[in-house]
Amino acid sequence: MKTILVSILCADRTGLVSAVAGRLFELGANLGDTTFAVLGEGAELTSLVEIPDEVKPETVEQELRALEEIGDGKVTVSHFDLPAVHGPSGKLTHYIRVTGGDSPGLNPRLSELFVQYGANIVGLHAEKVPQTDGTQYSIRFAVWIPEDRADACI
Question: Do residues 142 and 122 make contact, with C-beta atoms less than 8 angstroms apart?
C-alpha cells in the first residue's frame, strides 16, 4: 500500500462524500485522515488515502473526476511522502469555540496565542453567520495543548 493525498474542490452537492468514498472503496482504497467542509456554496474534501501498490494515483484522479457529483470541480491527487499517522501534538485535547461580532484579525490573533503556549491547532472551522442584528463570527478550534500548559492557555 502507498499513501496519496486526494483534494477536491467543487460545488456542494448532496451525496458528494458518499460518491467519493464509494469510488475510492471500489478502487481498493482505505481512507485515513479526512476533512470535509462546505465553503460558501462550494465544498472541499481532503483525505489521506492508502491505495494498493498496483493502483496508480493518476487512475484515482481520473476515476474521481468522472463522478457526476464532482461536476466541473477540481480534483488533485498527489503522492504523500510524510508519515500518515500523526504524532502526539496531532492528537486532540481540547475544543475551543469563540463567537461574537465579526472582527478582522481575530483568527490570526487567537492562533498566535496558541503558539505562545506551545499548542498545536489540529483543526479549525470559521464562518460568518448572518444575524438579524449584524454578522456574527464563529471560530471552532480543535487543539492539542501540552498538559502542563493547558490551564494557563485556556
Answer: yes
Query: HSE (CB half, 13 Å, CA atoms) of 68?
Result: 2
CB 60 within 8 A of CB 29: yes
Pairing outcome for strands 74-79 and 2-11: antiparallel
Query: Nearest Cα to 5, choosing from 64, 91, 72, 54?
Result: 64
User: Of how many residues is the chain composed?
Assistant: 154
> pLDDT tens track of the chain, all 154 residues?
999 999 999 999 999 999 999 999 999 999 999 999 999 899 999 999 999 999 999 999 999 999 999 999 999 999 999 988 888 888 899 999 998 887 778 888 888 999 999 999 999 998 888 777 777 888 999 999 999 999 998 8
Quick one: three-class SS letters along the chain?
A: CEEEEEEEEEECCCCHHHHHHHHHHHCCCEEEEEEEEEECCEEEEEEEEEECCCCCHHHHHHHHHCCHHHCCCEEEEEECCCCCCCCHHHCCCEEEEEEEECCCCHHHHHHHHHHHCCCEEEEEEEEEEEECCEEEEEEEEEEECCHHHHHHHC
